[in-house]
Amino acid sequence: MLEVGGRSVAVETLRRAGTRGMKLRADSVAGVIRLSLSPRVPPGEAAQFLNAHYDWIAAQVARWPVPLAFVPGAGIPFDGGTLRLDWSPTHPRVAARDGDRLRLGGPADTVAMRTARWLKAQALADLAPATHAVAAQVARPVSAVAVRDPRGRWGSCATGGRISYSWRLILAPDWVRANVVAHEVAHLVHPNHSPAFYALLAELDANTAASRRWLRANGAALHWVGRAL
Questions:
Q1: Kind of pairing between the strands at 81-87 and 75-78
Q2: Closest Cα partner for 175 from 210, 216, 199, 142?
Q3: Cα 204 to Cα 183: distance, rounded to the nearest angstrom
Q4: What pLDDT is attached to residue 228?
Q5: How many beta carbons lie within 10 A of that of residue 75, not counting itself?
Q6: Neighbours of 156 (CB within 10 A)
Q7: pLDDT 10s per residue in the chain (229 long)?
Q8: How far apart are CA 128 and CA 120, in angstroms?
Q9: C-alpha distance across the termini of the chain, in Å
Q10: In the prediction, which pLDDT does 229 show?
Q11: What is the DSSP string of the chain?
Q12: Considering all CA atoms of the chain, what is the largest pairwise distance in Å, rounded to the nearest integer?
């Protein structure tokens, strides 16, 4: 662990045969500094390398999003807006949306777990029908739609018509979700990124460029939503 700008940052050391020298990478999604090096590099030398590059590490960490924990009173992104976590012991235990608030009661120490569960359910309820509707446009069956929490992609299309998404898309604007859905459905027809794939994607949704820009600018922050302080 490193203390960087008031934050405790994990350092993962990856020793790989064939690695020449030492290389640093800052993962803004996972919140980790990764150090790749040869198995023969002594720990002391690796530590010196980290110390020598502390300013670079600090500059990277300073650009990372800050954790946004699911705690009472927190404002969390939702569907392009903000949803306030309105917890009270007098509220019903089951989370329910009330305008720009998410009302929930029950034990305070389970607010984070139940908020995450509610968001995942909302994501699936939004993305599943949207996926089937777009798939009908290209006359392709969808065998299953699921939501998970991958770090490297927003959606995936597997053989057999199984499509999965990051539940965190429910935190993004609806037009961003719509473009990700169109992207994965287009893979039902073209399981590649060929010109034919992009031509079909353009027919299904015209916001690919804007959606990519939005996710590049805001995607890392979505992965910090729900992360403990």
A1: antiparallel
A2: 210
A3: 8
A4: 83
A5: 13
A6: 16
A7: 888 888 889 999 888 887 778 889 999 999 999 999 988 888 888 889 999 999 999 999 999 999 999 999 999 999 999 999 999 999 999 999 999 999 999 999 999 999 999 999 999 999 999 999 999 999 999 999 999 999 989 999 998 999 999 999 999 999 999 999 999 999 999 999 999 999 999 999 999 999 999 999 999 999 999 998 6
A8: 12
A9: 16
A10: 63
A11: -EEETTEEEEEEEEE-TT--SEEEEEETTTTEEEEEE-TTS-HHHHHHHHHHTHHHHHHHHHTSPPPB---TT-EEEETTEEEEEEE-TTS-SS-EEETTEEEE-S-GGGHHHHHHHHHHHHHHHHHHHHHHHHHHHTT----EEEEE--SS-SEEEETTTEEEEEGGGGGS-HHHHHHHHHHHHHHHH-SS--HHHHHHHHHH-S-HHHHHHHHHHHHHHHTTBT---
A12: 61
The residues, any chain, with a CB within 8 Å of residue 43's CB and separated by 6 or more, are none
Beta carbons of 69 and 227 less than 8 angstroms apart: yes
The backbone torsions φ and ψ at residue 28, rounded to the nearest 5 degrees and listed phi first, read -75, -15
Task: Locate 97 and state its tokens.
Answer: 């949306």
Rounded CA-CA distance 166/52 in Å is 37
Dihedral pair phi/psi, residue 205, rounded to 5°:
-155, 135
Q: Tokens for 154?
A: 């927003």
